[in-house]
Amino acid sequence: MKKRSAYFAIAVISLFITLAPSAIGQTPSATPRQEKLLNGLKVLVFKTPSADKVSLKLRIHGGSAFDPQEREGVLKLLSESFFPTESSRSFFADELGGSFDVTCNYDYIQFDMTARSADFLTLIETAAQAMANPDLDKESTATLKAALLAKVKELEKDPAYIADRAVAKSLFGTFPYGRPEMGSSESIQKIDFADLLFARERLLTADNATLAISGNVDPNLVFRAARRYFGAWLKADKKIPSTFRRPDPPKAGTPVVDSPVANTSEFRFAARSLARNDADFYASKILQKIIEARFQKREGEKGFVRNDPRILAGSYVFGVSGWNLGRIKKDGNAIALPVTDGYQNEFLKEPITQEEFDTVNRMWIDRLNPNNIAELWLDADTYKLTNPVPKEIDNAKNVRIADVQRTLDRLRKEPFAFVLVFAGESAATSRN
Fold first, then answer.
1. Considering all CA atoms of the chain, what is the largest pairwise distance in Å, rounded to the nearest integer?
2. What is the three-class DSSP state of 397?
3. CA–CA separation, 65 vs 73, rounded Å?
4. How far apart are CA 151 and CA 354, in angstroms?
5. What is the pLDDT of residue 135?
6. pLDDT of 410 strictly over 60
7. CA–CA separation, 37 vs 223, rounded Å?
8. pLDDT grade, residue 387 (50/70/90)?
9. What share of the chain is helix, strand, coil (3-state, %, to 5)?
10. 310: region left, alpha or beta (phi > 0 left; psi from -120 to 50 alpha)
11. Is 272 helix (H, G, I), strand (E, B) or coil?
């Protein structure tokens, strides 16, 4: 990474924000100025008074759900390829006084970068060069592939990770959400350089991205810089529609998966939840905390409930570590389990009480952080939200107990998948 700070010293401007939740006087405006470049890139600019940092968020509206089957991990590798080395990432801290992070999930790839206000042009040019002229070659791909493979192999030794993957596969099958976001040790080894090139040409195009910039900035200057630096980023020749067959219902029963660690028990059960753009999304997040509180009364603090709405219907996942250890009996290949059929009804059958709703709803409102407004605008593009963002904020604050009860009723009707990852005390402490 070349040092460009001196070259851009002429651009001494006060702008942008790190989006630190505790910052006073640094709340971005709720409605940004917007412009769409000729190549289709959408640019959002948030005015943030008193900020001494610039924040740049670049989101690609497509994630690991688009991984080829049996080659899961392609999009994760691609996301890591834009700033592949420690020196390329430390540039943001060492030279720009900021930070760098990249996220790749089923729904999107997002680059989060910050810098000093005076280094704004360096920041935006660095991001633009990475997108328009990616430094992707076979050698760097092999290095990234080896690093990802090592990371995934370590995860695959973790009983909790195995349980999460097993219940997702049971719930979704070969549907993208049933396949690992980061890939598996088997799938990563099958990935070649051509897979990354195809994914880049298909998804990482200007018209499939949104750029959000926040700070104490002149929007006109931002748009000029965006046009200059991001203008060379190509748009797609054609749109490739995503077509995913709806997954089959999960099979009955509780399959038992061998744990690589002795004396472990990871229990999971899951059902399909809502899509992110569902009208009951905010009610579903409140419901998650209510049923988690119920679940923990039975299972203790090791119990949890996750609710992961996505572009398409996601999942509710219930989990507990150390579930019924000492009570699960193994005789040869046979395992005697406590009854799991209908187990979810213990936490779903009772209607939502006013006390439950009031407690969690207050927590939810407290967590509505206006500093995350840029993320909500990015979500609007990724998830095709039907409401404008200000209306989304109102909807979050105005959830009623009837909305949560309706969402609970929807969940009750869903079939559940069950999985147990288990090894008794006599099992080997680890298996590779």
1. 76
2. helix
3. 10
4. 45
5. 80
6. yes
7. 9
8. confident
9. 40, 20, 40
10. beta
11. strand
